[in-house]
Design goal:
With 360 residues, the protein is α/β, with parallel strands linked by helices. 36% of the residues lie in helices and 19% in strands. It folds into two domains: 181 residues, Rossmann fold; 108 residues, 3-Layer(aba) Sandwich (Rossmann fold), CATH 3.40.50.2300. The chain starts with 14 loop residues before the first strand and ends in an 11-residue tail after the last strand.
């Protein structure tokens, strides 16, 4: 079902929030766009602020479509643009938004499109790594092995890991990498890690910045080589935060950073009750972006969504916990540390309630 649409003629003083999404795109993209739109509508409904109006615009999933959608949003008097979804759409809309002085909170994970009034609310590669490293160090893990996929994500995660380990006084003397998408090619690198440990190389923890595509193969390979989280603590990234991670027996006992699952569970139930079906994981970003917009709407016109308000140090509370937009256009999140158990993720360290107060 859809929530009731607002009046076509908006009263004076209405704060207009444009939502740019590829609503007429093909395949699964259209479904994602629909879910993001419905999540934003749900936030507007939950906050029940009659002075705020959501104005959807279809980008068609193309740079030109996004540019036209942004132009239409500006003409309609939008004070803030939420979306678009893809990097090429953001590029298409960004010039229009910047020229008009309208800030944009987009869902792309490509950090190259951020900055100068364009903010990314998405979960950005590598930004969660310092949290898991800090927690591991606090639990006495000082010597790390690294098993990393040969991907752009793997390179970003490994660079963030090396920086965090060095800053915390740890060391990572053992490293291996594997080609993405080839289970058979993982055996050699796994054996390399196992042999290093068996030879007496001191390893307290193994960093595995892999996701649902690689972990189902890596877990059994590591176990068959004698490397489990029982003898070498496994630590991962937000890539571990997928629905059936607990079914991966080889990962039981592993730690990873992610939002507290209670927030997502509550949101998913509310979304399902309102619209039916289970929302895609990205839908929470639509809700959080709209809740941010509503929370700042009480400020005077011209100051609602200026730089100082959007990048305030205290940040905002959302479905996925505490977050804040940074001056460079990227974002920071307050994350929990979860442990993989057969019955589901268990919170080992709660997410912070304020920035600068993360628990270890």
């Amino acid at each position: 079902m859809d929530l009731p649409a607002g009046a076509i003629t908006m009263p004076a003083g209405t704060v207009k929030i444009a939502l740019l999404l590829p609503m007429s795109a093909s395949g699964s993209t259209r479904n994602v766009a629909k879910a993001l739109k419905q999540a934003a509508e749900l936030a507007l409904f939950d906050f029940d602020n009659q002075s705020v109006a959501l104005v959807p615009k279809d980008t068609r999933g193309t740079p030109d479509g996004a540019r036209l959608a942004a132009e239409s949003a500006v003409q309609d008097g939008a004070e803030l643009i939420i979306g678009p979804l893809f990097a090429q759409e953001v590029r298409g809309a960004a010039q229009v938004a910047r020229r008009a002085g309208v800030p944009m909170i987009a869902f792309s994970s490509d950090q190259k499109v951020a900055g100068n009034g364009i903010y990314l609310l998405s979960f950005l590669a590598g930004r969660d790594v310092p949290r898991i490293v800090s927690f591991a160090l606090s639990r006495g893990k000082r010597n790390f092995a690294v098993l990393v996929p040969q991907t752009a994500y793997g390179r970003i995660a490994e660079a963030a890991f090396a920086k965090a380990v060095a800053a915390g006084g740890g060391r990572a003397p053992v490293r291996a990498s594997f080609p993405a998408g080839s289970a058979s090619a993982m055996a050699g690198p796994v054996k390399q890690i196992a042999n290093a440990i068996k030879s007496g190389q001191k390893v307290d923890a193994l960093f595995l910045p892999a996701g649902r595509g690689e972990l189902p193969s890596l877990g059994p390979l590591l176990a068959s080589s004698g490397v489990t989280s029982a003898n070498v603590q496994f630590i991962g990234t937000g890539q571990w935060d997928f629905s059936n991670v607990s079914r991966q027996a080889g990962l039981v006992g592993g730690w990873y950073p992610a939002p507290d699952p209670k927030g997502w569970s509550k949101f998913a139930q509310s979304y399902s009750k309102t619209f039916g079906g289970t929302p895609p994981r990205i839908a929470s970003l639509g809700y959080d972006a709209m809740s941010l917009a509503v929370s700042l709407s009480q400020n005077p016109q011209g100051q609602r969504y200026n730089f100082s308000q959007l990048t305030r140090d205290s940040g905002f509370a959302g479905v996925d916990g505490l977050f804040r937009l940074l001056p460079d256009g990227t974002s920071q999140r307050g994350l929990a540390i979860l442990e993989v158990t057969p019955s589901g993720p268990r919170v080992l360290s709660p997410a912070p309630r304020a920035f600068g107060t993360a628990s270890n």
